[in-house]
Design a protein that fits this description.
Elements: E1 5-8, H1 12-23, E2 28-31, E3 45-47, H2 53-59, H3 63-68, E4 77-80, E5 86-90, E6 100-102, H4 103-112, E7 119-120, E8 125-132, E9 135-140, E10 145-148, E11 151-153, E12 171-182, H5 185-188, H6 190-196, E13 200-205, E14 208-215, E15 219-226, H7 230-234, H8 241-250, H9 257-264, E16 271-277, E17 290-292, H10 295-298, H11 306-323, H12 328-344, E18 348-349, E19 352-353, H13 364-371
Parallel strand pairs: 1-2, 1-11, 2-7, 4-13, 11-17
Antiparallel strand pairs: 3-6, 4-5, 8-9, 9-10, 12-15, 12-16, 13-14, 14-15, 18-19
Helix pairs in contact: 1-4, 1-11, 2-11, 6-9, 11-12
Length: about 375
């Protein structure tokens, strides 16, 4: 296959695709809106699963580099009741299948594995259109354009490539997270640090929960989840950090102070992260020369699988193109036929379906039953 692949988006999925293509000697160019790799922080930690994300890294030939950035001990997990009681605890003996890494470090590994010039930074896409005979034109915000006959949208929730395939757009899923960071936690925030422990901690309740994990550098990263309409969040002035934190914390009245401290004692302003999702099971008819991966194809409420699925999508698409060098359409068809059902599978933990936060089963006891496979 000599047709260069045009990839929109230098997230984990797009970069994995570019890397797997490079491993097989196939050319690709990635266009990314961000000005540089360091233009913004890349989020917190990711647990990379042995049944999808790690398979992608194996296909990319990057397992050794991946193992070098794994944060030891971070697979430890505990479930707390709202009064701070530790209801369940599981240590990390190094044998688990979901090692934790910093997202930014994982992205850098992928970037470092690509030839110079593969990623074109500062190229924000404003639109895409078909120009006939299986060719597409990508238009950038600066007015520039590029033509291609093999276009992949790896550009996330608000993909500019998706309209070539489907009219589906993400809709608010009814929940949002408020994100906070606590730095130098063991010395400056000891009660919260003790509650979180050495890995991740979740304190669930129907309609709300606090999830936090210990990142590198003695940092606690918390996601405070609430099931509320967008209008409820819109009434909160997030430009006033203290007032916003107090308003969110008020929803957790009566909870243990070491848990609410993850909201009120943040060292950064609380950041609202509304959850959007595409229709479950979204599919489209085959359109020559264009496809999607990751959130552009199957955006879902955060569930621990998004980054892993995006990377697997990228790896599987890269392998499909490499395996059918004279049949691009056959490769895209095979990729999509496997991707559609994979991305719509219910999220499970050891075979038990994971409940959403709005569920009446979103309690400490409900999670414990799931983790211990006692649910009947």
């Amino acid at each position: 296959m000599h047709t260069p692949v045009t990839i929109i988006g230098a997230g984990l999925g797009g970069l994995t695709l570019a890397r797997v293509l490079h491993v097989h000697g196939l050319p690709a160019t990635v266009y990314e809106a961000e000005a540089s790799p360091a233009a913004r922080t890349q989020g917190g930690m990711l647990d990379i699963h042995d049944y999808n994300g790690q398979l992608a890294l194996e296909a990319a030939g990057l397992m050794e580099e991946f193992r070098a950035i794994v944060l030891e001990g971070r697979q430890a997990m505990r479930v707390l009741d709202t009064d701070g009681t530790v209801m369940f605890e599981q240590g990390d003996d190094g044998t688990g299948g979901r090692p934790e890494v910093q997202r930014g470090e994982l992205r850098q590994i992928l970037l470092d594995s690509l030839p110079d010039g593969t990623v074109r930074w500062g190229r924000r896409v404003s639109g895409t259109r078909a120009v006939g005979e299986g060719r597409y034109q990508v238009t950038f915000a600066d007015g520039g354009t590029v033509g291609t006959s093999l276009l992949v949208g790896a550009d996330g929730a608000w993909s500019r490539v998706r309209p070539l395939l489907t009219s589906a757009v993400p809709e608010y899923a009814g929940t949002a997270a408020v994100e906070t960071y606590l730095f130098e936690a063991d010395t400056r925030h000891p009660a919260a640090a003790k509650a979180v422990g050495g890995g991740s901690m979740i304190a669930p309740s129907p309609g709300k929960e606090i999830f936090a994990h210990r990142e590198s550098g003695d940092t606690l990263h918390a996601y405070v989840m609430l099931s509320k309409p967008l209008e409820w969040f819109a009434a909160i002035a997030f430009t006033d950090a203290a007032a916003a934190a107090a308003r969110i914390a008020a929803e957790f009245e009566g909870w243990a102070p070491e848990l609410t401290a993850l909201i009120t004692d943040g060292d950064t302003a609380p950041v609202l992260r509304p959850h959007y999702a595409l229709p479950t099971g979204l599919r489209w008819d085959r359109v020559p020369g264009v496809t999607l991966l990751g959130d552009a194809a199957h955006l879902a409420v955060p569930n621990g699988e998004g980054a892993n699925l995006a990377m697997l999508d990228g790896a599987e698409l890269g392998k499909a193109l490499a395996g059918r060098p004279g049949d691009i359409e056959g490769a895209l068809t095979a990729y999509e036929q496997a991707m559609f059902p994979r991305s719509s599978e219910a999220v499970t933990y050891e075979g038990v379906e994971v409940q959403g936060i709005a569920s009446e089963n979103n309690t400490a006891q409900g999670l414990i039953e799931m983790f211990t496979e006692e649910r009947r």
